[in-house]
Amino acid sequence: MVSDALQFGGYFSILCTQEQNHMEPIMQKYGLNSFTYPILVYLSRNEGLNQKNLYRMFLLNESLATRTMRTLEAEGFIFRERDAEDKRSYILRLTNKGKDIAVVLADELDKWWSDVLQPLNENATAILAAQMLKISQRSIDLNQATIDSKKWINNS
User: Are residues 40 and 106 in the same domain?
Assistant: First the structure.
């Protein structure tokens, strides 16, 4: 089982790389990159998200993500407003330009993944999605536990 499990990383890497390769012409057209287009799509589906929650969702380095949000704001894709509940953070919203581009990106991603998943029936796709969610969350939890234990050790 472990040797089979070791192949998963390669499969995930292939899928991620192929998705990015497919999206490259669209990203270039709008001046986006493989780091920013998933953020725009996610924000289109989660309007008004707290910036810190976005960092956690994508497991982003906070300083890099802050610079990215500033760039997306400067390019007119998003706007940020202070979070009333956490004055140190921002609420992120798409501008009309950001919304328009997010629709194009989401449509293209939906088409691509439909083509990729075409060999699977609807039930198999649902099972795969559910299992991917479980192992994705498990990987996040394991890495967060490691980060937390290192913080605890360093603060002792």
Answer: yes
